[in-house]
Write a structure and sequence with these properties.
about 45% helix, D-Maltodextrin-Binding Protein, domain 2, 2 domains, 11 helices, globular
Length: about 325
């Protein structure tokens, strides 16, 4: 019996050592980053930039796999149910991890409990653009124009619950203005209607809005970031007129809950190194984004604060759950 007990103890010790060694050796095979949207979009591009950097840091291939559908829900659920071994990750967004919880009656995953945040990858402000015929040359003039004409002017978005929609609703609440929402199925058709004057304005994503502003088809009035952006350094922030106002979209790397702490630390450390590289920051700036500056516990707090913040905006705007 004594010999049997010693043998069992030795096996248990070897098992623990084996687990520790596995964590130390991680990764030993390719890692997959699931993008819950179609290829070619901003989230997909951010994921591929991060994947290239992580591959160099970790010494293993990092593959991007697209699983689009239902505001990112399909891809997010897939990763939430994946084995938490560090080899399946998610490039989550403000939708999958902040707004979906308030926009859908029931999600097949819990944005907080089913994931372990790794790092904030990128943040992109929105830009307030107006049709050139709108009689407002500055943000201050626009706010006054809207106050003098409640319900007369319209804004477009990519649909209910998108960053354009929620940013505009935050702006309305903060300025006490009334602007009519016109939802679209995509940014392309929406911005064409801003250009044509069929709608008056939009809080569109930076890459699209900046390109049209430079082409002279729309007038840019302000950005929603806390500070001016390098892509348009002379454009004021909305915060100059509405103190504390910030908004926009973001992407972040998540692992399934239950991942080994050492593996998580490896991912956090590698992500921070990648996002600090000048070439990575330059590539993200080319998208109208800035590299993330939060990882691990700090990113986890950010996700929770974003969830709470947008739940309040959605409730005040009276947006119905799907």
């Amino acid at each position: 019996m004594r010999i049997a007990r010693l043998a069992l103890a030795a096996m248990a010790g070897l098992s623990l050592l084996g687990g520790a060694a596995a964590a130390e050796d991680y990764p030993t095979q390719a890692i997959t980053i699931v993008v819950p949207y179609s290829a070619g979009g901003t989230t997909d591009t951010v994921a591929r930039i991060v994947a290239d950097g992580l591959s160099q840091e970790l010494g293993q291939p990092v593959i991007v796999e697209n699983k689009p559908g239902t505001s990112g829900i399909i891809g997010a659920e897939y990763v939430a149910r994946a084995k938490p071994d560090g080899y399946t990750l998610l490039m989550g967004t403000i939708s999958t991890h902040a707004t979906n919880a308030s926009l859908f009656g029931e999600l097949p995953y819990d944005p907080i409990k089913d994931f372990e945040p790794v790092a904030l990858a990128a943040q992109s402000p929105n830009m307030l653009i107006v049709n050139p015929d709108v009689p407002a040359k500055t943000l201050e003039e626009l706010v006054q124009l809207l106050k003098d004409n409640p319900g007369k002017y319209t804004y477009g978005s990519n649909g209910a619950g998108t960053s354009q929609h929620l940013t505009a609703e935050s702006f309305k609440a903060a300025t006490g203005t009334d602007i009519l929402h016109v939802p679209y199925k995509g940014s392309g058709s929406m911005i064409l209607d801003v250009i044509a004057g069929n709608i008056d304005m939009s809080f569109d994503n930076m890459p699209t809005a900046l390109a049209q502003m430079k082409a002279g088809t729309v007038r840019g009035l302000a950005v929603t970031s806390a500070k001016p952006v390098p892509q348009a350094p002379d454009m004021p922030t909305i915060a100059t007129v509405v103190p504390g106002f910030t908004s926009g979209s973001w992407q972040g790397l998540f692992a399934p809950a239950g991942i080994d702490e050492e593996k998580l630390k490896t991912l956090v450390d590698a992500s921070e190194k990648v996002l600090a590289k000048p070439d990575v920051q330059e590539k993200l700036q080319g998208l109208g984004a800035t590299a993330g500056d939060k990882a691990g516990a700090e990113f986890k707090e950010f996700v929770q604060s974003e969830t709470n913040r947008w739940a309040d905006v959605i409730a005040k705007a009276g947006i119905q759950k799907n």
